[in-house]
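Hey, I was hoping to borrow your eyes for a little while. I've dropped the whole record in just underneath, so have a look:

——
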Amino acid sequence: MRYGVTNICLVDAGAPLSLTSDKSTECYRNWWPGPGSDMIDFTNRSIDLLEQIALATDNRIAMSRRGYAFATADPATLANLRNTGKDAANRGAGQFREHTSVAHADSYISHHESAWQNMPTGIDLLTDPDLIQQRFPALTTATCGLLHARRCGWISAQQLGAHMLEEARAAGVQVVHGKLTAVSQTGARVSGVKVDGANGLTHQIETQQLVLSPGPYLYEAGRMLGLELPVSCEAHVKVVLRDSHNAMPADSPLLSWCDPVELPWTTDEKATLAEHDESKYLVQPFPAGVHGRPMGSAGNHYALMLWTYDVAACAPNFPMSWDAHMPEIIIRGMSRMLPGMKQYFDPLPGTVVDGGYYTKTPENRPLIGPLPVEGAYVNAAYSGYGIMTSCAGGELLAAHVTGAALPSYAQALAPARYDDRNYLAPFADAMAAGQM
């Protein structure tokens, strides 16, 4: 609507939000590593737009701002959190504040269960175990430090998607249900697409502009244009349980444990698991990063938990499959941070498991902008942060297509960045930069 473009056709093989977006944790954050400030600037802009939607719709999207809390029991990791927090502040994430004593607890403003307005931005670092226990009593008493990134929280992805689709239809966007199967080119320019629809119907759509946003099928879609896009897929899965024991309090922020974990087993359990090749991995150290957030109101809430302890590049395949032990692994891993989770060890509760695919570039930044084929654009490779950056990503893509002024971060997200053979060098030490 902003640019007056109305002749738009949206091609989708399924119902909107039905592939991977509805498996989202629905979170947002302006917490990103470098190099540079581009990803923080990009997500800050997207959060600005989410806030505008929340205000315009009486918070239809259920926006909250509890933050992301990163906890550790290791003093060395605490020092890394301090350095990371200061670095993020310098790159635009907001003010860095350190709280070293329970005697000065008033300097730390706690999060609110549902509010997002008038909540702090920036980063708070708590280094007093007594203060941490006072504000986060569910955490293990071994916690020696907690970094609370504040311009972070979650929304209703379904309501955001529904709002966007309603706005698009109101602006004249037509929806065609079908699968894109071929792209025509005249010379070096897009001239049309073929769409295989329901009941064997085929649509031939003439167009000189095509935007690829096919989620985990991006590589396949790129090949229709004769392109080998630098992307791969990873399967990511989440586990949800009814938190009847309030192990993850209903008013918690997103909680992440920054230390490697050995799963808690009894001596006999450990010996039995170690005897068998198919289960001995369960007694080995697991990587840091088990995390989760509550979902729902107090007295009737769920714990939504994730742990990317074993990810590898793979081809997207639906329905997905996953490690049968994953629910127990994640519950036991989470108990290192939240001891109340031990109440679910025996018997193991019923859980809901689902997931989707992260479509990633090597340095985990999206692809937004023109492709080498004239008239072709991409707005994809959002890894696990598509919900939170969809607003700014759509805005940026629209600016590319219409020739409008581009924001400062446009070049950093454009596919042409890979034309520089030295581009990836600054990311060599952290090729998964920004992944939770």
In short: The chain is about 25% helix and 25% strand. The longest helix spans residues 38-56. The two ends are 34 Å apart (CA to CA). The CA atoms of residues 102 and 134 lie 8 Å apart.
